[in-house]
Amino acid sequence: MSDLTAIGTHCEEPNCSRLDFLPFQCADCRRTFCLDHRQRISHACSAPGPPPKLRHDPTSIPEFHPCAAEGCLQKEHVAIECPECRGNYCFAHRHGEDHRCSSKTSQNSLAVSAPAHPEFHLSPTLIAPVGPPKPRKAPTAMALKLNAMKLKMNAVGESGVMEEHRWFLEVFFLDDGGGGKSVYVADDWSFGRACASIKRVLRVDARHENARLRDVLHMDADVSPESLVKDVIPNGGSLQFVSL
């Protein structure tokens, strides 16, 4: 019969020395113990143990950060500092425009109080030079086609003009910042007849009755009243009243 001591291991606790066939090894001191002495406290382990786990202290008082915005009583668990004025604010007032940031207000006042110059205009945040107006670009063929389709939905004109000959135009009035009026004329009319028809269907006042119509892209060009309207302005183009 084989010796059972060759199979098991004796507990290394001095007061125990029990033969254990399923021994336990301490993870800290690396010694072998029986079931009763496997815990650190049961064998008075001398090796340094793992760091204690952090536990929440129920007596600790959480820190709150009050909002510095005028009239706001909100408090946050985290500090939210404005990078401009260095004040602490809640989530609702964290942006400068929400708490009327004093730093931005001072910058705006400096910009507004800057001396005026004929070549510059004032901006809320900076002074930028004003260059010459950009020339108006001629619309592409696709843009004119799309504009003609849009004008067709609400265009007014003489009922005698057949649909396949209608030439759709957008008309702008004098000193009017609003949108233009959608009209149509016949593509085989002269430009003079088309202008007279436009004034009639739009029922313009005396000021516009005495004004002339010009292509917005060629305001200074002299157009003969006898020229065909389709040779003067494309379908989907724009006209504007110009004072005589």
UniProtKB/TrEMBL annotation:
Question: Which residue ranges does the record assign to the AN1-type domain?
Answer: 5-53, 61-109
Q: Which InterPro entries match?
A: AN1-like_Znf, Znf_AN1
> Mind naming one GO cellular-component term on file for this protein?
cytoplasm
The record's annotation in Pfam families points to: zf-AN1
GO MF, one example: zinc ion binding
> What SUPFAM superfamilies does its record include?
AN1-like Zinc finger (SSF118310)
Q: This protein's superkingdom? A: Eukaryota
Q: Which Gene3D superfamilies match?
A: AN1-like Zinc finger
Q: Which UniProt keywords apply?
A: Metal-binding, Zinc, Zinc-finger
Quote the PANTHER family the UniProt record gives. ARSENITE INDUCUBLE RNA ASSOCIATED PROTEIN AIP-1-RELATED, ZINC FINGER AN1-TYPE CONTAINING 2A-RELATED
Name the UniProt record assigns to this protein: AN1-type zinc finger protein 1
Q: Which organism is it from?
A: Hypsibius exemplaris (Freshwater tardigrade)
From which lineage does this chain's organism come? Answer: Eukaryota, Metazoa, Ecdysozoa, Tardigrada, Eutardigrada
